[in-house]
Amino acid sequence: MRLLVTSLVVFSMIVALIPTNLAYLDLTLRLSTDFSEGSVVRQLQLSLLFLIALWVFYRHLPVSLRSLRAVNPFLLLIVLYCAASVVWSPYPVVTLKRIIILGGLVLVGLCIAPPINNAAQFLRTLRITLTTICGLSFVTAVALPHIGVDYALGGMARCHVAKNTLGSVASYATLLWLYELTTNSQQRRISAFGVAFSLFMLLMTKSSTATVLTVLACGMYLYTHRIWLQGRYLNVAMVLSSLCTVVLFVHFYYVVNAQLPTWGTIVGPIAAIFDKGTDLTGRTEIWQILLLSINQHLVTGIGYGAFWLGADSPAQFIADEFGWMPAHGHNGYLDLLNELGVIGLSLFTGLLIWHAISILRLMRFDRPQAALHLSIVLIIIISNITETDFLSGSQFQNLMLLFSLITVSTQLYWLQRGQEIPHHRCWREHRF
């Protein structure tokens, strides 16, 4: 049974990271491809994944049902609301398929979370899986550069996945190895090598977004873990230092230019370092035109998963405007608002707030792991400003969010009832 649970983690990452439809990655092919039917290969992969999860869930039914009741309530409300959107969705069959995927992923999350699986074992399996993917990418880039290196985009490593996705993989691998480095004194050399290799792969992807997010997430982890950053007045010192830096910047900018700084003057130099524009590589233009669709169904949304479906879908007017079909709105918050309306976005905001509170409660039991989950959520929240991962089916970042939500909720539930934690064959006593 423990092998099955481990396979769920590995298999879910493979499903999330290996593309099954090349048209989804090609701007020209997306313009003429209808994605409403989905990928048969992906459907078979998910069916197998969900069947394994269903078997594990059934084998631990009493405990699984108790863990289900402990899950973030807003997650269950969102699933129900997405199901309700079938009524007004222009593609009810597509919406229904997306709901089945979302429900199946919640099922997988319950099977890889405590008490069915050990929380430390989950993180270990995830770390090894992501590092293995980075290693395979490295080998492919060296041995088969015509496959593993995208010379059209500046010689960045990509292997079998898009460069931004590989950047996200390397980002999470770095964070997970940093967690291991600060919590396992017996494996510090291996952990240090893991951090270094993951950072190397991150830089090779040349993903500026992933690089910035890795720095922020690792900084957040070290700050909240407090293993190296300590001091009675650390919070006050950091807040005052940040305020002083902002005030001094605004003051000197005003003295030199006789005006207050604008968005372009603040973001421009930073964007130039990463070879980007202040329009976030054309994303702001997509956001502006996407608002036209949002205003047509502001309260309830168009329907879960019923907008970005390629040729002749509701997103066709955006393709007509730009001459190419975006895969999504490049903003998870706007896409949520478009598909689920104000109601859905409000429920999702409640989900994030509930999750943050749960993480803070988890700190009383295990500060390092709570700090890790807080850093994971930070990556996802910020990355969705320029990408869409929220409730995006089997996409990598969406899996990370769902697994974090369920792991924290169930782990906190059983830790608060320490004496009642059941001892399954796949469960080993371990300090979370």
Count of distinct strands: 2
The residue-averaged pLDDT reads 82
Q: What is the helical fraction, as a range of percent?
A: 55-70%
Q: Could you describe the largest sheet, including whether it forms a barrel? A: 2 strands, antiparallel
Supply Rg.
22 Å
Q: How far apart are the first and last residues' alpha carbons, in Å?
A: 20 Å
String of helices and strands = HHHHHHHHEEHHHHHHHHHH
The residue ranges in which pLDDT falls below 50 over 5 or more consecutive positions are 151-156, 419-432
- The outline comes out as globular
Number of helices: 18
Report on this model:
There is one protein chain. Strands 1-2 form a two-stranded antiparallel sheet. Strand 1 and strand 2 form a beta hairpin. 68% of the residues lie in helices and 1% in strands. It is globular and about 55 Å long. The C terminus is likely disordered. By secondary structure, the protein is an all-alpha fold.
List the SSEs and their pairings.
Blueprint: H1 2-17, H2 27-32, H3 40-59, H4 61-70, H5 73-84, H6 92-111, H7 119-143, H8 145-148, E1 149-150, E2 156-157, H9 163-183, H10 188-205, H11 208-225, H12 234-257, H13 263-273, H14 283-294, H15 316-322, H16 332-362, H17 367-383, H18 396-415
Antiparallel strand pairs: 1-2
Helix pairs in contact: 1-3, 1-7, 3-6, 5-16, 6-18, 7-9, 9-10, 9-11, 9-17, 11-17, 14-16, 16-17, 16-18, 17-18
Labels describing this entry:
single chain, 432 residues, mainly alpha, two-stranded antiparallel ribbon, 18 helices, disordered C terminus
Task: Write a concise synopsis of the structure shown.
The chain is mainly alpha-helical and 432 residues long. It has helices spanning 2-17, 27-32, 40-59, 61-70, 73-84, 92-111, 119-143, 145-148, 163-183, 188-205, 208-225, 234-257, 263-273, 283-294, 316-322, 332-362, 367-383, 396-415; strands at 149-150, 156-157.
